[in-house]
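Posting for a labmate who doesn't have an account.
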Amino acid sequence: MSDPSAVEGVDGVDVGWEDAKAANLANWEERVPLHVEGYGLNSFRDDPAHLSSVVRTDLEMLTPHLPEGSLEGLDLCHLQCHIGTDTVSLARAGAARVVGVDFSPSALTAAAGLADELGVHADWVQGDVLEARALVDAALGEDTLFDVVYTSIGTITWLADLHAWARQIEALLKPGGVFYIRDSHPMMFTLDERRDDLTMAFRYFGDGRPMQWDDASTYVGDGTIAATRTYDYPHALSEVVTVLLEAGLTLEAMHEGRTLPWHFAPRMVEVGDGEFAFPGDEAERVPCTFTLVARKPESPLD
């Protein structure tokens, strides 16, 4: 992996969504073979009951909000599913039908190959998650609705328009259905991860302009990539909550966590099951993740 100290961010760049998305897609396409090697896929092959560490963590907070406290028999749509390890895990956890949506054709090819190898039935839908409802309509039919819409870790910072994102979620859910997100905390993203202390260096509040990065490394696996340019978008926690409420969902639970399932800063320490935390009392000073559970009302009058 490249030297993190060499990575520089440029704040507030003037780039349109289509151009930013194209750059990000080129970057994520190149990540796929590195992640296929680095995600520990043999654990899924060796143990038919194996679930990803992300899904094991998420189920603890998600299942209390589901009928009978389980995914058993439910239809689930996984937004920004990448190479499908979490999607497969959700199917293994009991979901009757799983659909993965992602913008990367190479990621979905890897996901479909993994699912087929493991005997897991899943549907895969390729395209911009901000158009997820129309994409699912085209691929699976306009009457396709879900009991659960799920997204977790490393997702919404790649999206410019969270209002559009929230509208997709509402439109994909059945009445009474549940939306679940766990993601990296926007407060953590204000920190300069290269420093040896907790120094804020980047914006917390979004204004529609992305951060521009040039980085040849990726968060897991060996090797580097050539399409180094990426763009990500600051989104305050209040923005995430507000767009879901404005889309018509009701908030049922919220949590902020002290650990993270990827190595954000070099000085973070591994604390077990692939989770990382800031050292010592720093773990009590900055949240690493946030989790939200929201529900679509049974009817517009609810």
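Reply:
Got it, the structure tokens are right above this. The CA atoms of residues 2 and 217 lie 5 Å apart.
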